[in-house]
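Practice problem 4.
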């Protein structure tokens, strides 16, 4: 296999890796916010369920429940999942649990006076939350959420164990057909490193901009 063919195969694997990471991040952001709201709900059973969700998916290895979702669910419920779907679901469950705690901390970090100011204007609690508190909490949480994307990119390599043709799976196949493990694993390591550095730089820029906005009172 020539260099061009190897590069093309790695590029295709990288595209799928980015798709998995992007989809998992979007879903984790949404599910994490929902779980965080449940963690802050006034009803104890709802809080308990949300707490259980966070503890469960932060405690179990991603490797274990990715295999369970891909192989166990089809046997138990007759539901067929593609490696892409199983990978996205697994990463969403794991990272939404972490993001829920990021959201919860950010919401609690918003000054209590914001609630009081909204009450003085006659706003309802939901309106106060979504119009005043949540935008400020998102500003606080954004750097941590972007950093969570770094973890998603790194963890996405585990989808290779269920046969998703991502960057890692493609590299493993190329190694078996070319017998060039050092060159290929070094290359894929550098690709993941470049992705992580890129996202980390974006996170730093976002954090600096948000810090400037806070200092200016925006």
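Answer key:
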């Amino acid at each position: 296999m020539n260099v061009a063919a190897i590069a093309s195969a790695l590029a295709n694997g990288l595209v799928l890796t980015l798709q998995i990471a992007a989809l998992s991040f979007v879903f984790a952001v949404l599910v994490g916010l929902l779980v965080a709201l449940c963690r802050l709900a006034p009803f104890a059973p709802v809080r308990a369920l949300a707490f259980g969700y966070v503890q469960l998916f932060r405690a179990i290895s991603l490797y274990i429940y990715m295999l369970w979702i891909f192989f166990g669910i089809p046997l138990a419920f007759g539901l067929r999942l593609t490696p892409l779907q199983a990978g996205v679901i697994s990463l969403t469950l794991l990272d939404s649990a972490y993001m829920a705690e990021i959201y919860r901390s950010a919401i609690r970090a918003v000054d209590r006076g914001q609630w009081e100011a909204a009450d003085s204007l006659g706003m309802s609690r939901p309106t106060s939350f979504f119009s005043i508190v949540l935008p400020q909490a998102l500003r606080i949480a954004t750097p941590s959420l972007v950093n969570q994307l770094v973890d998603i990119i790194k963890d996405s390599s585990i989808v290779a164990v269920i046969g998703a043709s991502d960057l890692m799976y493609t590299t493993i196949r190329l190694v078996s057909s070319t017998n060039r493990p050092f060159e290929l694993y070094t290359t894929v390591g550098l690709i993941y490193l470049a992705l992580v550095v890129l996202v980390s730089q974006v996170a730093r820029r976002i954090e600096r901009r948000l810090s400037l906005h806070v200092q200016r009172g925006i």
